[in-house]
Amino acid sequence: MGPVLNEKTKRLWAGARALELGYGGVAAVSQLTGLAPNTVRAGMLDIQDPEIQASPRIRRPGAGRKPTVEHDPTFVVDLLVLVAPATRGDPERPLLWSSKSLRNLASELRGLGHQLSARTVSKLMKQAGYSLQSPRKVHEGKADHPDRDAQFPFIASQRASFQEAGPPTISVDTNNKILVGNFFHKGRD
User: Fold this and answer.
1) HEC profile of 39-74
2) 129 within a domain of the structure (yes/no)
3) Is 84 found in the same domain as 46?
4) What share of the chain has pLDDT > 70, as a percent?
5) At 66, is the pLDDT very low, low, confident or very high (cuts 50, 70, 90)?
6) SS3 of the chain: helix, strand, coil, percent, to 5
7) What is the count of structural domains for the chain?
8) Which of 34, 126, 157, 188 has its CA 20 to 30 Å from the CA of residue 103?
9) pLDDT of amino acid 30
10) Are 105 and 158 in a shared domain?
């Protein structure tokens, strides 16, 4: 029966069997099913509560694993700090996507002492307004100047300070060359 039952029905079934067996029923059902004795006892209480039986919920409100943010609220701030310099997107919207991969971000956050997966990073990025985007071009031109990449964090910090101060912020995207052809690839960073 185990594979076709959800948590609630499994708990109710185990509780009903334990009540049916009487004294020693909790231990017997727990040993036969592999369920914890507390789960069997909870099922015995649930079987006697018509409200729980009628409820469509599988778990009680507040049950289940708590969101990672509740355990470690500082990692959202750390994530946004890591992402800010590598943010790319539509110039009319301040934040759209990051050039860093989810795995790299998760790895960097683990280096800062946070315990999370790339999937958790993905959920938080989506909540912060980011979306997954594939790169459009491989060739962006030669990186002739040694400070070429320094402009992006500088622009991001300037934009943030202007937005905090309140005046309108205008972003201008300029290119001196536009590459023609198939420059798409499935790269990571």
Assistant:
1) HHHHHHHHHCCHHHHHCCCCCCCCCCCCCHHHHCCH
2) yes
3) no
4) 71
5) confident
6) 50, 0, 45
7) 2
8) 157
9) 92
10) yes
Residue 15 belongs to some domain of the structure: yes
Tell me the whole-structure pTM to 2 decimals: 0.43
pLDDT of 153-165, one tens digit each?
Answer: 787 788 888 888 8
Q: 132 falls in which pLDDT band (50, 70, 90)?
A: low
Sequence-ordered list of residues with C-beta below 8 angstroms from that of 146, at least 6 positions apart, any chain: none
CB atoms within 10 A of CB 120: 19
Q: Are residues 83 and 115 in the same domain?
A: yes
Verify that 157 and 83 share a domain, yes or no. yes
Average pLDDT over all residues of the chain: 76
Q: Which residues contact 80 (CB under 8 A, 6 or more apart)?
A: 128
- C-alpha distances (whole Å) from 84 to each of 89, 110, 154, 168, 183 are 12, 18, 11, 20, 26
Are both 100 and 126 inside the same structural domain?
yes
Tell me how far apart the alpha carbons of residues 90 and 95 are, in angstroms, rounded to a whole number.
8
Does 182 reside within a domain?
no
- Bridge partners of 97, per DSSP, are 88
Domain that holds residue 12: 2-54
Token couple for 87: 């943010």
